[in-house]
Amino acid sequence: MFSRTGVDSGTRLLIETLEVGPGESLLDLGCGYGPIGLAIAATVAAAQVVMTDVNLRALGNARKNAVTNGFRVDVRQGPLYEPVPGLAFHHVVSNPPIRAGKAVVHGIVDGAPAHLLEGGALWLVARTKQGAPSLRDKMDDVFGNADVAARGGGYRVLRSEKRSRSRDDSSR
């Protein structure tokens, strides 16, 4: 909802960087008017896309954009992972609301493992000068890995993968 003239450059970089395979599932967390989830629905065969946001106006626009373009997506209202209890995805994706504060952004990272399938990935985009390095550190703390998948226009796309722990790690 914050980009009135088109898809902002951070979201565009995230969309261009995502690696979603045919038939995979994706949760677009904080979808706004829907550019990420709808781009995946448009370009990935049989993708299963769930889009969530707390803002009812944003969700109305996301639904309208989906219907207008003939995309089948599941749009749900609520904060963080509340709209998808018990569901797990191949990908959780977000252009997180940095201005909402660390509690919200860290909630996205902290909740992701419970909503990712084994081998699934959390993908976030952030401005390099507005917390991308500390966000990467948070993702590394939670997942034990965090990579910069792409850089451009002052943004970084960050990616963490849900991996099983080895027997040695689980006994610690």
Q: Which terms would index this structure?
A:
Rossmann fold, 27% strand, 7-stranded mixed sheet, 6 helices, 172 residues, alpha/beta
Structural notes for this entry:
The chain is an alpha/beta fold. It has a single domain (9-170), classed as Rossmann fold (3-Layer(aba) Sandwich). The chain has six helices and seven strands. It has helices spanning 9-17, 35-43, 56-69, 102-111, 132-143, 167-170; strands at 25-29, 48-53, 74-77, 89-94, 116-127, 147-152, 155-161. The protein has a seven-stranded mixed β-sheet, sandwiched between helices. Helix 2 links the parallel strand 1 and strand 2. The chain is globular and about 40 Å long. The termini are far apart. The model is unreliable at 166-172 (pLDDT under 50).
CATH topology: Rossmann fold
**Count of the domains:** 1
Structural class: alpha/beta
Average pLDDT taken over every residue: 93
User: Mind telling me which CATH architecture this is?
Assistant: 3-Layer(aba) Sandwich
Task: Provide a quick synopsis of the model.
The protein has 172 residues and is an alpha/beta fold.
List the helices and strands and how they pair.
Blueprint: H1 9-17, E1 25-29, H2 35-43, E2 48-53, H3 56-69, E3 74-77, E4 89-94, H4 102-111, E5 116-127, H5 132-143, E6 147-152, E7 155-161, H6 167-170
Helix pairs in contact: 1-2, 4-5
